[in-house]
Amino acid sequence: MKNLIIAISIIFGGLGIGLLLEKILFKKIKKLVTQKKWKTGKVLMDSLKGKVVFLITFFCIYFAIPYMSVLKFQPQTVTIISKVTIVLILLILTLIFQRFLSSVVLNYLKLTLPTTTSIFKNIINISVLILGLFVIFQTIGIKITPLITALGVGGLAVALALQDSLSNLFAGLHIIAVKQIKVGDYIKLESGEEGYVVDIGWRNTTIRMIPNNLVIVPNSKIASSIVVNYNLPE
Description:
Number of domains: 2
Low-confidence stretches: none
Helix content: 55-70%
Strand content: 5-15%
Largest sheet: 5 strands, antiparallel
């Protein structure tokens, strides 16, 4: 019974600390960071927002598991609970790192490029998620080498299945790289639609027409058609 009380105390203690950090301490730190104009610190605070409570609570659950022997769990059950807890911790850390990295990179791109698009954020988010999944698999004992081999063998089939999506992705990267069309430019498509470029995503380019309607055009269509850009030459 004593061990069970210790386990409950650890879990609820962690929950209380998480709530304290989230509701009081983090607000003060974020306010201080904003006053000091420390952009990286603000990005870090935004990345941690809403996740600290869960992160600390799951950490405490993991450390409380050895004290739950009074519940007489089977060894396999204890192992499963431990692995699930580790997976949740790593998943939260992955989401924190994903948001932090994408925000830092986008802030850097805003300083070096005249405009930024969502395609960079999407690529970073997908890359970090894949890396996080590999770390999770490796941590819980799933060997990733056979998985990578299987992905390599099935890569051709996946590429064929996602041919249109990959075509739009590379077309979007090409549009951004050549800088002939940028967010904010007023363009007219070969098909007659015209308006301001709102975003260049991983699959589509969004154009806002004068009546405030949005035209969603696949990147590959724009890359292969005649487009009049009224902002060029500047």
